[in-house]
Amino acid sequence: MIRKSVTMSDVAKELGVSTVSVSKALTGKDGVSASVREAILKKAEEMGYRYTGSKKEPEREHHNIGIIISEHFISKDAYYSRLYEKTMMMMADEKQIGLLEIIKKDAQKNLQPPVLMTSEQIEGVIVLGQMSKKYLSMLRKFGLPILYMDFYDEDIREDSVISDSVFGSGLLTNYLIHKGHERIAFVGSIRSTSSIMDRYIGYYRAMLTAGLAVEEGWLIEDRNEEGDRIVPILPSNMPTAFVCNSDATAFELVKQLQGMGYNVPGDISVVGFDNFIYSEMSTPKITTYGVDTDALALNTIRIMLEKLENSDYSVGRVLIPGTMVERESVKELK
Fold first, then answer.
1. Low-confidence ranges of the chain (pLDDT < 50)
2. What is the DSSP secondary structure assignment for residue 42, as one 8-state letter?
3. What is the pTM of this model?
4. Domain with 70 in it
5. Cβ count within 10 A of residue 95
6. Do 72 and 21 share a structural domain?
7. Same domain, 220 and 253
């Protein structure tokens, strides 16, 4: 029987460190402490590993990584389809294998675990988009590395990669204020996802900071309890501007306002969030805050790979900054 040679990865697993750390220790490079370097050198000798002298960083191992997403997002929110596609393409660039499983509504309600996890096909799982607390708790029982993408949960603490929703929404609200708007409403169901809640917080903080009142009826629902989109019920006391939690909501709101006889932005201004296709499909095109989906996907993959190489690796909540994109949906008030 041929004995398998010991690799850097084998040494790394024994010590619970990354393969890169092992490489740096063996090649005398900076980036690891003296105690860790000593432990790596000792373990490598014990295991019979012999460094060949190559100066190349070790290639990452190939891993099977699951991506699970609620059917609600994949069927009714094209933004998540784009985010999934980007993640899969970047995973292929990293020579990793991504496996998708769409979790049906009944499966989530009945706490039916993903087949990818029960069949032991994956080594780690990326949860794309908000899921119920009970379902997230169930996933943890499998003991696999888990990473939340585009949401977080304050009760179930797992590492997450999210867009900077508080800052982005605050930036949009301040933009409207600087354009002379004082009567500004928010459109979004804040209990639907953590990102919508954060976008409301950014809006509300900007209003408070500017000394502006948020009138009753200016927090406007755009989804029902199931998370499906609904037609917003607009207040009788109309604002001069709306901050929307997404470009999809802003797109539908513009059409709704125009159907009611309002001119956008002549009578009412509208801003969105995401810089997704809806913002450019709209007439007028919508001013928005652009989420850096490339950075979101890339950071998610790299963090997951580190978690797979080092079971103690943790990053907490990683915020991905974006940029404001100014278009034609806002009027400056004099």
1. 1-4, 55-57
2. H
3. 0.78
4. 64-163+294-321
5. 11
6. no
7. yes
